[in-house]
Amino acid sequence: MGQEISTDKFRTEHFDRFAERLESEMVLLRSWFEGKKFCDDRLQCGLELEAWLIGADGLPVPDNSLFLTTLDRKWVVPELSKFNFEVNVSPQYIEGDGLRDMQSELESTWSRCCEVAKRLEHRILSIGILPTVTNSMLCLENMSPMQRYAALNEQVLRLRGGKPLSLAIDGQDSLHSLHQDLMLESAATSIQVHLKVPLELSVRYYNASVIASAFTVAMAANAPLLFGKRLWDDTRITVFEQAVDTAGPEPRVSFGNGYVQDSLLELFEGNLTNHRILLPAEFDEAPALMPYVRMHNGTIWNWNRPLIGFEPDGRPHLRIEHRPMSASPSIVDLFADVALYLGLAHYLATLTTAPEEILSFDLARKNFYEAARLGYSAEVTWFGGRVYPLADLLEHDILPKATEAMHDLGIPSSHVLACSEVLSARLRTRQNGASWQRQKFADYDGDLKKLLFCYEDNQRTGNPVHAWD
């Protein structure tokens, strides 16, 4: 959830000062868009993977502080709960060996994380929702000791007038509960792909990312269970949306309100207009580094969101953060999913007729939630208004076009082939993380620990999920 802050206690004057400085930076940001000041570079990709610390008993272990201190890796950082951590992978150019290099880096870091966890008599796991996490574990006692997280919790509840957060999910089973803090969010772990884009292509790639979300969330779905209940194929989506509900005019986590029309500036303007300030921290950084814009934007977690970053020489750049995909069953699956997103976004962004002119935003949003809820079994509306079974559309139309686009991006043919074979096999077998977990839940009569141990054994092999028993 972002950078640390110096205090978790705020008064009215903190909010006033933050609002003043935020507006001052927005004036500068508008001039950057108007003057086209953003870095005009080749497409670049980065990613984050959220993961779990677990014990020999299959339960989450709230020990990320000791784990991270022992690990001592700059790009492996704490998450909201003490039993989660996040691995960041160095950004690379997509053209050439960038994705291969990212995969090698993640494999090396993951291996090191496994070694350190073993030394501490723990294990690590990548999964969308840990089946064995319980409601009682999602409590403030298990929150990572960072002031940012304490402040987020306090401010979310303040904006709600102290009312508890309500969780209501209906799937094969139903789950309804109340929560006194935002720790529910820590049950949901994902990968986040960062796509750096030049200004002149940013609108097309953003809208393409929005449309692609239905397909990426279904393919990567790996979170069908929460508290022993069979819910959505990717239950993370609805959990996160409800876990940080500030009861404001616009939800803090959502699919958004519409396509971008002329500029990604529209999204930053919407964040300024529609969202109350959540963390009014103070910064010593110069306005040219956009600390207040970035902080405010960083407390709005839409499934596709714009980010501002900076080149080593100080020039600003634009990124699209694509957030719909679950933490993966294997690193092989993860990079196949990343390749699918990149290929599909590129295909859609370079169509002669912009797809946002063909598919309404309301239909794109409906597709997304149907895909998150039902996965491969969903039906989606596609170009021309025809309704298709999602898995059939992916297998026979979307994936071939995304694969061709991967070649167009300059990804080496061998890597494209490896990724497309994994994706094709997943579609052919109709087995991803969600469907595998559902089947094992049935096979094991709801024994969550047995399911988890089987999942862990399969993950340790490194095999993609379509090949799991």
Report on this structure.
The model has no long low-confidence stretch (mean pLDDT 97). With 469 residues, the chain is of the alpha+beta class. It has a single domain, classed as Creatine Kinase, Chain A, domain 2, CATH 3.30.590. It has helices spanning 12-35, 64-71, 98-119, 147-159, 199-219, 236-243, 265-274, 291-297, 331-349, 361-374, 390-408, 413-429, 433-443, 448-461, and strands spanning 44-54, 76-78, 84-93, 123-125, 165-170, 174-179, 191-197, 225-226, 229-230, 304-310, 316-322, 379-381, 387-389. The strands form four sheets. Strands 1, 2, 3, 4, 7, 10 and 11 form a seven-stranded antiparallel beta sheet that branches. The protein has a two-stranded antiparallel sheet with strand order 5-6.
User: Level of helix content?
Assistant: 40-55%
Question: Could you state the order of secondary-structure elements as H and E?
Answer: HEHEEHEHEEEHEEHHHEEHHEEHHHH
**Uncertain residue segments:** none
CATH architecture: 2-Layer Sandwich
Q: What's the mean pLDDT score?
A: 97
Tell me the CATH topology: Creatine Kinase, Chain A, domain 2
Tell me the name of the CATH class: Alpha Beta
- SS strand fraction: 5-15%
**Structural class from helices and strands?**
alpha+beta
Total domain modules: 1
- Which descriptor suits the 3D outline? globular
